[in-house]
Fold this protein.
Amino acid sequence: MLSSPICERIGIRYPVFQGGMAWISDARLAAAVSEAGGLGIISGMRESAEALRQQIRLARSLTDKPFGVNIMLMHPLADAVAAVVAEEKVAVVTTGAGSPAKYMAQWQAAGITVIPVVASVAMAALAERAGAAAVIAEGQESGGHIGELTTMALVPQVASAVSIPVIAAGGIADGRGMAAAFMLGAVGVQMGTRFLIAEECGVHPAYKAAVLKASDVSTVTTGRRFGGNTCRCIKNQFSRSFLQKEYAPDATAESVADLGTGALRLAAVEGDAKNGCLLAGQISGMLHKEESAAEIVHSVCDEAEQLLKGAAKWVK
Amino acid sequence: MLSSPICERIGIRYPVFQGGMAWISDARLAAAVSEAGGLGIISGMRESAEALRQQIRLARSLTDKPFGVNIMLMHPLADAVAAVVAEEKVAVVTTGAGSPAKYMAQWQAAGITVIPVVASVAMAALAERAGAAAVIAEGQESGGHIGELTTMALVPQVASAVSIPVIAAGGIADGRGMAAAFMLGAVGVQMGTRFLIAEECGVHPAYKAAVLKASDVSTVTTGRRFGGNTCRCIKNQFSRSFLQKEYAPDATAESVADLGTGALRLAAVEGDAKNGCLLAGQISGMLHKEESAAEIVHSVCDEAEQLLKGAAKWVK
């Protein structure tokens, strides 16, 4: 068994978080991951805060184990969603896109363990000062909204800068990545893309098929030119068209601001793998089959355990 | 002692390569790294092929241990430089920017171990088919010319795709990165930026000072918009101006093609840290002091050994 301070803190068996993916991570996937001993995470950004409350209650009906909710702090619904997770006293809240300082007192009063996703040393230090229990240091090899630092460069620099536990995310899809994360100073991992293809993940089958078909060089980043909204997604008609418009001579921050609107829903819900936005990480090329959440958690942790137990073989 | 098949193959003590940095990696630095038990690498791209021959001979006068030469295959001098390394029978040639297939017979006849730098699974497979002894899988967190994949995503995918040894590069500056590389499937590491600040590195002190001052978020990438020539360097007047011109509405591949000409020499030789191009990796933020090449090799390997020997502690 892998041992990690984050497991004791949250009450989970394996130090494996399932990334909170908008339009994708729902109660069923989160409950399956939590039932398997990891930390399932529901995306908090839904049609309404009440829709999230229903998802939280649905997850509770499927598992009595702890699970989390991911909140995008820049989202118009953030205040309402922040209140719902406090009222529902979810075990863990992970946050993206900003500092959770504003909600910290409310969440801590509700007994919530707050774990911000950070993309730099400064963001990690800010999260620690705000009272975060841990941070998820996420590299730009991740799918979805990303920063600039990669996992290999980010995790050790964050681990040196803060004294709270660090969870590594980005570019991790198997036991090799998990064992590497521990060597870099992390005490757990978060995986998004690997759980996107889980059997219990309700994302449209066409989306899963595109991830399973992808190679190592199948992703691109949109939204980089004008900054602030860089996304990693699979090359398709949507991303080609986005990049063409983004890098057109007359493009402006305003002209590209809405290019992605509705595109993730189109891919995840409608299954339009051509015109939809297929957020996915650079490790898509490592994924070749659909498996249950339990198979994923166990195979990743088993492989990491074997590698860590056997690591001394490299020293004569 | 770390044990690795690449050490036996090349006849080095520690599986640590020093990156071949144009205008920076010379005979003195390479000999110091090789004397310390790693693999020193001279940049092959100099004023002339004969200038490289003098560097090779100088290195031989400083060490009787194996060292390497790095050759940029797209460089106008590549043919002449390829002939010199064969005539001088250097121990190792690392190659960048293309396939070394064209020179393979010549180099193998000279007893040279050929190790291409690759940025994707396809490039790694091509190198293996061409007869490479190993590959250096280099992530985009590296300084200098880079691809798109990160080390965390690239190394395991390359390790799964080829049966020759894999050396990891990009984002590695200490024993944590080295131990992580072994977990990902590599059997050695290459470090550029960490050796750039070595005492024996003759790069201008103003360049070293800029690297030592840099934080985790101090690098940017130039040359990405039109593709083919993406470089990671430290934010300064040069890179700001480059990016402004690169992303200007009327920019074209042609208009940006020569923006970097002379800028690396200006930084590395003249010490113009404002108008020169300071190639450096995302781990610059981890580097705080100048040390000898031997101190670097030993401290990185010692830390990696301790981590690998102690890795089993994570398994209860």
